[in-house]
Write a structure and sequence with these properties.
It is a single chain. The protein is an alpha+beta fold. The chain contains 17 helices and 23 strands. Helix 7 crosses helix 8, helix 8 packs parallel to helix 9 and helix 9 crosses helix 17.
């Protein structure tokens, strides 16, 4: 339930003439003090009224008080914090910009405390008047009158068109037509913000804060998403900044939150009587995820202008989804998913590692597994009157086009989609098929042992060996790019299928199928094919590149699997947290949401790898006798 907490009544920001303020600064601080330092001191006082209340109370005798203190420990603590923040700029707080040579740290702190005390009284941030009478406790200082005007403008200063040669953008809105909107920056809300657009006189493109509208003669206007946009439009009169949209990405990624849950959380926490709807949160997620994926993949999304949000996710996945490939396998290599080739097994007796580097490529592994979940499938059968026998034409994975002879039809629908197939039609109707699955069977993921996601794909009916091999062929069309080991829970079944199908046999020239360590213990002990060729860590030395020697804390050697064969299980365990969200999505939303989350997750894995490598390098550079917690 929304919770309320009591705060003091806000008081107005100090109202002073600038001439008086300037005279005080010149009289009490150095002549070379910068504007930023003055503003820093000003807001250090207005933001700490509780400390000023405590400080002032000790300066006056009330009740049974026997002593007073001019400069209390409260103001001294603020002085020390100010000095620490200013660093070398502290000298500008003194006249002539020089700290006297005979001043020690206590003298400096005492002098600055006196300046801050005088500054607070000058600003009337003091609960007592000039005669020492108590006039009331200080409350939080309102900064409403300091709120700047927000003008939401294009992020480009010149046209980026290829033929425009950096033309300037002219302001495209009439003054009477400039819209006033609400802008959310982080958690702050600005109700009087204004939208400005720019136009290029050469290409006639219109630049908005979040996109570029491209006009082409004889074609529909195009909308180009600007990756460097600072603000997004998520409602008719509501805009947000990238801090807000990135927070949505982080929240959904870290907490498996739905758009509805995040909308409720934000409205209860920061809404201030303004509710953010689920649709607006989803819109912000789409805008942010498109920019995130575009920047990571180095692509730009351009779609037809004024598309509904559901169609935007369809085109986003079509143009940026790379058919489910998240990280091309040739673009990643690290110590966790790549090992140097060994011709024979390591010998624990003499602690010898038989690494061979000449004429052999590094050994790589990928892990494959499926998680049972998928979007709702509404398989549509489109029946068309056509002068031909009954045939089936697959236009889309979710649509089956059936052409029927001499059939009277009723509903006009999907005309544009069918015409794209080159079929001349007169009438069509849509019928629901009750013999299809109501959702996809599973999502198959392929990742490196380090956790980097390589690709994913939806399987409609089953996790069959044919579907698995089709996925692998899509990821690795070139034989030389294929990994040395492919780890999958049903590797023995896949291997049998490969041996039977002549089209799959070339895989055996470069790769070997092994079962992951978790599922291998449940495979039949009398399955010779599985035990001989699919063992993830054979102890007889038949697969030297799958087993390495490590040492425990006592320096004793032990055998260890060279690769993390549970990488996909760990990925799918995290991915399963989104099941309650994903199963209610349409296919287009499902595809884009899952792909964006996997791209985002892969980037997090790569960032953590870089952090670990940096910590390792720093620890290696430290002297051996220095014990530092990095």
């Amino acid at each position: 339930l929304p919770m309320a907490y009591a705060i003091g009544t806000e008081q107005e920001f100090p109202m002073l003439k600038f001439s008086q303020f300037s005279q005080f600064i010149e009289a009490n601080f150095g002549s070379k003090i910068s504007l930023s330092t003055v503003i820093f001191l000003l807001f250090s006082l207005t933001s700490n009224v509780e400390l000023l209340n405590l400080h002032a109370r000790q300066q006056y005798r009330e009740g049974n008080d026997r002593r007073t203190t001019t400069l209390t420990a409260w103001i001294n603590a603020l002085s020390m914090a100010v000095t620490s923040s200013l660093g070398s700029k502290t000298k500008y707080l003194f006249q002539e910009n020089i700290i006297p040579d005979h001043y020690n740290d206590d003298d400096i702190n005492y002098n600055i405390s006196a300046k801050l005390d005088a500054f607070s009284k000058f600003l009337k941030l003091h609960p007592y008047n000039e005669t020492g009478h108590y006039i009331g406790e200080l409350g939080p200082v309102s900064e409403t009158k300091l709120t700047p005007v927000r003008m939401i403008c294009p992020s480009f200063m010149r046209c980026n068109g290829a033929l425009c040669d950096g033309s300037a953008l002219t302001q495209n809105s009439k003054y009477r037509d400039i819209p006033k909107v609400t802008l959310i920056e982080g958690t702050k809300m600005y109700h009087e913000s204004y939208i400005l657009t720019g136009s290029c006189s050469k290409c006639k493109s219109i630049y908005y804060a979040d996109h570029k509208r491209i006009s082409i003669t004889g074609q529909r206007p195009q909308k180009e998403y600007l990756n460097k946009a600072r603000y997004f439009k998520i409602g008719t009169h509501l805009w947000v900044d990238r801090v807000f949209s990135k927070a949505i990405m982080h929240g959904i990624y870290s907490f498996h939150a739905s758009a509805a849950a995040y909308a409720e959380y934000w409205s209860n926490s920061f809404g201030n009587n303004i509710e953010i709807s689920r649709k607006q949160i989803w819109h912000a997620f789409i805008d942010e995820s498109i920019r995130t994926v575009s920047l990571i993949t180095g692509r730009q999304l351009t779609v037809d202008d004024h598309l509904p949000i559901n169609e935007i996710t369809h085109y986003a996945f079509e143009h940026l989804g790379a058919n489910g490939i998240v990280k091309p396998p040739l673009e990643h290599s690290c110590l966790e998913c790549t090992q140097k080739y060994k011709s024979t097994a390591d010998n624990m007796t003499n602690y010898r590692s038989n690494i061979t580097t000449e004429n052999f490529a590094p050994v790589k592994m990928v892990v494959v597994d499926g998680v049972v979940m998928g979007p709702t499938v509404r398989l549509t059968i489109i029946v068309v009157e056509y002068s031909a026998d009954i045939i089936t034409y697959n236009m889309d994975p979710n649509v089956v086009l059936r052409v029927v002879m001499h059939k009277k039809l009723q509903v006009q629908k999907h005309v544009r989609l069918i015409k794209k197939c080159g079929i001349s039609i007169s009438q069509i109707t849509v019928q629901q098929s009750y013999f299809s699955p109501n959702r996809y069977y599973c999502v198959e993921t392929v990742c490196a042992p380090c956790g980097v996601v390589i690709a994913w794909k939806k399987f409609v009916k089953s996790e069959s060996t044919a579907n698995i091999m089709e996925l692998l062929n899509m990821i690795y069309p070139i034989p030389d790019s294929r990994p040395a080991y492919i780890c999958i829970d049903k590797a023995c079944l896949v291997l049998r299928s490969v041996l039977k199908n002549i089209l799959y046999r070339p895989w055996l020239l470069n790769s070997r199928f092994v079962v992951d360590g978790y599922h291998y213990t449940n495979h039949k002990a009398d399955d010779d094919l599985c035990r001989t060729f699919c063992n993830p860590a054979p102890s007889d030395g038949s697969a030297p590149n799958l087993v390495i020697i490590e040492h425990d804390r006592n320096g004793q050697p032990y055998y260890k699997r060279a690769f993390n064969t549970q990488a996909c299980e760990q990925l799918n365990s995290w991915l399963g947290g989104f099941e309650s969200i994903l199963k209610r999505m349409t296919v287009s939303n499902f595809n884009w949401f899952l792909h964006a989350m996997l791209v985002y997750h892969t980037q997090h894995v790569l960032d953590r790898q870089q952090q670990r490598e940096m910590k390792t390098r720093l620890s290696d550079d430290l002297p051996e006798d220095m014990d530092v917690d990095i």
